[in-house]
Design a protein that fits this description.
Strand 9 and strand 10 (320-324) form a beta hairpin. The protein has helices at residues 4-8, 19-29, 46-56, 70-84, 100-111, 128-134, 153-159, 182-192, 222-225, 234-237, 252-265, 271-280, 285-288, 290-304, 333-344, 372-383; strands at residues 33-34, 94-97, 117-122, 138-143, 164-170, 198-202, 228-233, 246-249, 311-312, 320-324, 346-347, 349-350, 363-367. The strands form three sheets. It has a seven-stranded mixed β-sheet, with helices on both faces. A four-stranded antiparallel β-sheet has the order 9-10-13-12. A two-stranded parallel sheet has the order 1-11. The chain has 385 residues and is an alpha/beta fold. The relative contact order is 0.17. The protein has two domains: 4-44 and 288-383, Aspartate Aminotransferase, domain 1; 62-283, Aspartate Aminotransferase, domain 2. It binds 4'-deoxy-4'-aminopyridoxal-5'-phosphate (PMP) and glutamine (GLN). 4'-deoxy-4'-aminopyridoxal-5'-phosphate is lined by residues 38, 99-101, 125, 170, 174, 202, 204, 233, 235, 241, 244, 246.
Length: 385
């Protein structure tokens, strides 16, 4: 009989179940208001569903091109040009992918070798470190500075060694909700000058940015764009997280390596949905209206929790609101998140799970991509604590 523990010898011994699965399941079991996992509790635009009916009935149900249909690649490249002044060739520099997570994983897999170091900012979105580690790379963490989660660029400089292969950034940032300023991007650009470091820029929340802040895509900065993968997701932009559709932009030489992995990993991304999105993307007003749509939701939630003992941390982007609970409880955030769900009927995400050492600043993350009814119920529970 084989020795399974030896045979298995996990490549990811420290990885458990993602917090998003854990908390959504717990919320369901306890019939709690689920402000934990980030997804809208309202449906996508009716027009998108009409287009779905149209294109799924148009005889387009076989393999599309591996890099994606040209019409959709053209739309995403046009958007990057219009919003960020960037030039990408849709033939060689844009690839349609099954979700941003996949895009990030594939970029990491295409470049990170055993022993390479990858700089991650902490708290870190939970898919990055396992993607580095399964490829034999080593995450090197730079901690964002609580409570505004600003970046100490000197610490970034110190984290870089001859082994640094890649840096993953995420702006607007999940879970901190902070955004990189133009000065941050210039500091980043300066640090990388004269290095061969590749950047993966997770920009899935590019349209969810508030209070007049502007999204600083790496695509705006030539010294960053030349070494970067820009990763975005239609799931966030069009309220279809279950579709798992996204795209990646990168200079030709980088994208060629990406596509070598992509063609043997998934080969193609859902075809009919690409036609749907190419059609729908012709109207930029949809994504341009997102910031004010979500800012209203954020403000509705904040009005709802007025008078509560939770301390509001600024939410500059994403569809999350962080609340510090030091005046409410001494518990660890993971314990409080479970207790809130079970006893009070409200699920949130504890931030400590996004630190490799479990560091806890007593902060919970609440998703406001919800109907006003859901937000009002959640806010009432928070006011009562
Ligand atoms: N990156 C970040 C920061 C996210 O928050 C998410 C999902 N919420 C993703 C990537 C994944 O996007 P997708 O569902 O398109 O894989
Ligand atoms: N990114 C979403 C969040 O932060 C969840 C996506 C997932 O469940 N992996 O809540």
């Amino acid at each position: 009989m084989p020795n399974y523990s030896k045979a298995i010898a996990s490549k990811l011994p420290n990885v458990g179940t993602t917090i998003f699965t854990v908390m959504s399941k717990l919320a369901q079991e306890h019939n709690a208001i689920n402000l934990s996992q980030g997804f809208p509790d309202f449906d996508c635009a009716p027009r998108l569903l009409e287009l779905t009916a149209k294109y799924f009935n148009a005889g387009l149900n076989q393999y599309p091109p591996s890099a994606g249909i040209m019409a959709l690649r053209e739309r995403v490249v046009e958007k990057a040009a219009a919003l960020y002044g960037a030039t990408y060739d849709p033939e060689h520099e844009a690839t349609i992918v099954p979700g941003a997570t996949y895009g990030i994983f594939t970029a990491i897999t295409a470049f990170v070798r055993p022993g390479d170091e990858v700089v991650l900012f902490e708290p870190t979105y939970d898919s990055y470190a396992p993607a580095v580690e399964v490829n034999g790379g080593r995450p090197v963490y730079v901690r964002l500075q609580f409570p505004d989660y600003s970046i100490d660029w000197e610490a970034v400089q110190r984290a870089i060694t001859p082994k640094t292969r890649m840096i993953v950034i995420n702006t607007p940032n999940n879970p901190t909700t902070s955004v990189f300023s133009a000065e941050d991007m210039r500091a980043f650009e300066n640090i990388l000058r004269n290095t061969n470091i590749i950047v993966v820029a997770d920009e899935v929340y590019e349209h969810l940015i508030y209070d007049g802040h502007q999204h600083q895509s790496v695509a705006r900065f030539p010294g960053l764009a030349e070494r970067s993968f820009v990763v975005s997701s239609f799931g966030k932009t069009y309220s279809v997280t279950g579709w798992k559709m996204g795209y990646v932009l990168a200079p030709r030489e980088l994208m060629a390596e990406f596509r070598k992995v992509h063609q043997y990993n998934v080969f193609v991304t859902n075809g009919p949905l690409q036609y749907v999105l190419a059609d729908y993307m012709q109207d930029p007003s949809v994504y341009l209206a997102l910031a004010s749509f979500y800012q209203q939701k954020r403000d509705f939630f904040l009005t709802g929790i007025k008078g509560s003992r939770f301390r509001v941390l600024p939410s500059r982007g994403t569809f999350f609101q962080n609340l510090a609970y030091d005046a409410v409880s001494d518990e660890k955030d993971t314990d409080l998140a479970v207790r809130l769900t079970k006893e009070k009927g409200l699920a949130a995400i504890p931030l400590s799970v996004f630190y490799h050492d479990g560091h806890c600043d007593k902060v919970l993350r609440f998703c406001f991509a919800k109907s006003e009814q859901t937000l009002a119920k959640g806010a009432a529970i928070l006011r009562g604590l």
